[in-house]
Amino acid sequence: MTMTQQTGIRRELEAAPKRAAGASLRQAIDWRSINWKRANRNVRRLQRRIVEAQQQSKKRKVRALQFILTRSYSARCLAVRRVVENPGRRTPGVDGQKLDTPEKKAQAVDKLSTEDYQPQPLKRVYIAKKNGKGRRPLGIPTMDDRARQALHLLALDPVAETTADPNSYGFRKERSVADAIEQCFTLLARSNSPQWILEGDIQSCFDEISHEWLLSHIPMDHAILKKWLEAGIIEQESFSLTTTGTPQGGMIRLVKAADVPIKRHVKIKAAANPYDPEWETYFEERLGLQMKENLREYEKLLKLWYKQNGRCPQCGQKITPETSWHLHHRVWVVNGGDDSMANLVVMHPICHMQLHGQTNLAESFGCCIASSEEGV
User: Fold this and answer.
1) Which of 54, 232, 10, 279 lies closest to 156, judged by CA?
2) Is 338 left (phi over 0), alpha (psi -120 to 50) or beta?
3) Which of 167-181, 215-229, 255-269 has the lowest mean pLDDT?
């Protein structure tokens, strides 16, 4: 490891607010003053190094970088942000707590620095199956546990994307069912293609999967993973142990699709890795096509998105359908601002709140004329 890398790691680990000399309590984190550009830059740098180490089969270096990442201030901030941006933020776990104020979000960031972590049991809920036959059980973690999961996902996902089968599509970043369908079409549309397809389904896969197998094959902190697997479930105030399986739930999103027109999908390239810098331009082009389709009826919003190169001016990160967005007036309407292109900016909702964090929120959000949550 070079002196520059050591200095960068030391800077990252020391980035969090520090305890003053002689003080008994750590300086409080101000959620609205977090530098999101720096946080994203620090995390992406470490994720790129994890990919490089994995590609070179340097397992010890991968584990060391994962250790650094999961204990970094920047990663803790982004983990909490992912939880509070997710549609599931309105569904609490067994403790009934939500991260619905800046103070609670800051406390969640601080809690992620503790080493004596113990997850709470999952809350059992049921949703209807797509085929209408019966209900599917879900296990909902608490907000603090979701944040811890999101934190370790930041370190695990670069490894998973680097080692995954090129044509696997389930639970993978930037991939969809449409990509799998297009790959099937590519393979089956030839004159010499197979005439039969064997479909396999592992019965009760999530419910019966071995904990020992998961602990042996998932490249992450095994102590944390073991605690999650054995956290248990609470259903109607009754606690049950979890000795096998991994409950489905957590950071989920229920989407209802209706009257969706059929369009030809451009399949993702099999080797594409969202954490590898060599694929950055490719994913930006795909995102542009995706946003163009999502914003087809909102010409002004789409032009703003392209004008900003698809990025939020506050944090510098991509604006996607998943992150959602707000429209912000540079000069507020109450102060004489208009809806011209020159006076509008597309921003992430959290970044929009941060921009107005030092003002009266009820007044400042008079600048927001539209948001993704309103169907725009």
Assistant:
1) 54
2) beta
3) 255-269
Residue-level pLDDT at 208:
82
| Rounded Cα distance, 222 and 220, in Å | 6
Q: What is the mean pLDDT of the chain?
A: 81
Higher-scoring residue by pLDDT: 182, 293: 182
Residues constituting the chain:
376
Phi, psi (deg, nearest 5) at residue 311: -120, 150
Q: What would the two tokens of residue 265 be?
A: 């999908």
Give me 160's structure tokens: 């998973």
